[in-house]
Amino acid sequence: MSLRIITTGGTIDKIYFDAKSNYEIGEPMVTSILEEGLATVPHVVQPILRKDSLELTDDDRQLIYDTVAAAPEQHIVITHGTDTMPVTAAKLKSIQGKTIVLTGAMAPARFRITDSIFNIGCAVAAAQALPAGVYITMNGRIFEAGKVRKNLELGRFEATE
Questions:
Q1: What is the mean pLDDT of residues 18-31?
Q2: Pairwise CA distance, residues 161 & 157, whole Å
Q3: How far apart are CA 106 and CA 81, in angstroms?
Q4: Which residues have a Cβ under 8 Å from the Cβ of 115 and sit 6 or more positions away?
Q5: Is 11 labeled as catalytic in the residue annotation?
Q6: One-letter-per-residue 3-state SS of the chain
Q7: Can you give the pLDDT at residue 22?
Q8: Distance between CA atoms of residues 161 and 150, nearest Å
Q9: Which candidate in 24, 51, 139, 161 could, as Cys together with 9 as Cys, close a disulfide (CB 3.0–4.6 Å)?
Q10: Mind spelling out the 3-state secondary structure of 73-111?
C-alpha cells in the first residue's frame, strides 16, 4: 500500500513574518513531519498549490480533483487550509474507489505549539484504515465529507448531523 500526500498550502505551511500576521505559504512541512515521526508508510508528496484556502478558486478545486482522480494510489491525504476544507471535500465526493482524507491545522507546523503534527498523523492512519470515501480529520476526529463544518467561534470542526 502506498500513500499519496497532496499539499495545497494552508496554515500548516504558513510562515509568519511579523506580529501583524503578514505571511506567505512556505514549502510543504509534511515531509519533515513524517520523517521526524519515523513514519514507515511508503508515500509520495505532491505539492500542487501554495495558497490559503480562502484564496482557492473553482479552478484550484478542479486541479485538486484532477490530481486526486489521476493519482495511481488509492489512499490519498490532502493538506489544506481549514476555512474551506469542507467545500473541497464536497467537490471530491464523486471520485470512486479511493480513500481521500483532508487535514489542516489551526497553527502552522513551524510553530512550537501546533496541532499540525497530530492532524497529519491522524490523516495518514485514517487514509490507511477507512473504506473508500472522502473524509476530514481534525483534532483526533474523523468526519465524512458533507457532514462537517468549521466552528469559527470555538476554532474546531464539528459534525453537522
A1: 82
A2: 13
A3: 9
A4: 105, 106, 107, 138, 139
A5: yes
A6: CCEEEEEEECHHHEEECCCCCCEEECCCCHHHHHHHCCCCCCEEEEEEEEECHHHCCHHHHHHHHHHHHHCCCCEEEEECCCCCHHHHHHHHCCCCCCEEEEECCCCCCCCCCCCHHHHHHHHHHHHHHCCCEEEEEECCEEEECCCEEEECCCCEEEECC
A7: 77
A8: 13
A9: 51
A10: CCEEEEECCCCCHHHHHHHHCCCCCCEEEEECCCCCCCC
Is pLDDT above 70 for 91?
yes
Indicate the domain borders of the chain.
3-159
User: Which one of 8, 11, 82, 99 is the catalytic residue?
Assistant: 11
Residue 20: the pLDDT is: 62
Grid coordinates representing 63? 486541479
Quick: pLDDT tens for 97-121. Answer: 999 999 999 999 999 899 999 999 9
Name the CATH superfamily, with its identifier, for domain 3-159.
L-asparaginase, N-terminal domain (3.40.50.1170)
Answer yes or no: are the C-beta atoms of 124 and 37 closer than 8 Å.
no
Residue/partner pairs of 35-40 with CB below 8 Å, 24 or more apart: 36/117, 37/117, 37/121, 39/124
